[in-house]
Design goal:
By secondary structure, this protein is of the alpha/beta class. It has 2 domains: 309 residues, Adenylosuccinate Synthetase, subunit A, domain 3 (Adenylosuccinate Synthetase, Chain A, domain 3), CATH 3.90.170.10; 97 residues, Adenylosuccinate Synthetase, subunit A, domain 2, CATH 1.10.300.10. It is built from 13 helices and 19 strands. It has a 9-stranded mixed β-sheet with strand order 7-5-2-9-1-10-14-18-19, with helices on both faces. Strands 13, 15, 16 and 17 form a 4-stranded mixed β-sheet that branches. Helix 6 packs across helix 7. The longest helix is centred in the middle third of the chain and has 22 residues. The protein is globular. The chain binds inosinic acid. The site of inosinic acid has 20 residues, from helix 4.
Amino acid sequence: MSTVVLIGGQWGDEGKGKVTDFLAEQAAMVVRYQGGNNAGHTVVANGQEFKLHLIPSGILYAGKPCLIGNGVVLDPEVFIQELEGLESRGIKTDHLRISPRAQVIMPYHQKLDACEEKRRGASKIGTTGRGIGPAYMDKAARVGIRMADLIDPEEFGPKLKNILANKNELLQKFYNEEGFDYGDIYKKYTEYGKRLAGYVEDVSIIIDEGIKKGQHILFEGAQGTLLDLDHGTYPYVTSSHPVAAGACLGAGLGPTRISKVVAVAKAYITRVGEGPFPTELKDELGDYLRQRGHEYGTTTGRPRRCGWFDGVVARYATRINGLDYLAITKLDVLTGLDKLLVCTGYSYRGKLLTEFPSTLKILDECQPIYEEMPGWQEDITTVQNYGELPENARAYLDRISEVSGVPIAIIGVGPGREQTLVLKNPLE
Ligand code: IMP
């Protein structure tokens, strides 16, 4: 039995979808435990491209149970669109289950997300605008609507009435915006509830049964360590817990049940939205990586900011998540560059920092300290094993592993399932 938590080791968009998809083949079930449709996975399977926001990429394997844990915030409208999109391409979704404890993203959450970003002006977070923060705010305030409520009109009606009065007052009096009509939302969302009722089941029990049977279980994180509400570059973070510990809270299992933690990290690094980014390349090289790596958000289409691999971030991810392995993606994007830089530390007011700082004030003043490595020119997209990689590519991987303090288990050399080199299978 192996329960593997796969998380993002950077600022999200590390290519977790591809690695999840690859590992999902051997897992008995795939579980999502935090975030919502702020995430976006692009998976290429059998030559077809699938863009998924909420549904775990394991869905592409026929009959594989895919679970959505209590830690997720679920937008029923988007979820139903995603279901229908998959079904129209012949993918069955009857093995999908949603926790009754998962929170529901309501239309007022999206509106409040937009209002608050506008109000913040220059200090906006750069959210995805999907209502994620406001939905988690309601959860913490204990006024959120959960999936169990959505599918039960007797619970849903009074809860919606109560919370909507509060939200409408906030929208009208504070943000100077129009409120929502109770009847409209009630009608639309009870229909969504009917459509989704058959998928709702306590996923913590399904996971526990899987563990007792000795099955392989894959927990699929969304976003990344540096976007974690507690451990990320606060306040430029998301409102959930993308770190490995989030899997326990967000799926309903204890930490002693986790066997391995793997972080996915790009061979370089990207960030979307606002916030500090020490190794950012604001020059043509940054534009080059963006073009070559197709670095545009799956969810919002926004261009991603690109930079050199940051070893301080990677070491931090190793500590915070208790990493066993790294999965390095998009190594092929670096092919053709004469030299590569790896950040090994930060310089702060003339001092060397080797650990990631806890305040933005310090981080803002940090300058990356780089080590230069020679690049490689050979095409690596058809390479089948580690030994076939050019010597300089191997040296680069070895160095980023050393700087991160964790071995590399998986290497991505292209977008396809087959373009994956496995040094160590974390599920074994
Ligand atoms: P929110 O999650 O929409 O509230 O956005 C908060 C921050 O997290 C913003 O900087 C977003 O760009 C970032 N973010 C949220 N989801 C993702 C993701 O899946 N990939 C990368 N960045 C994300």
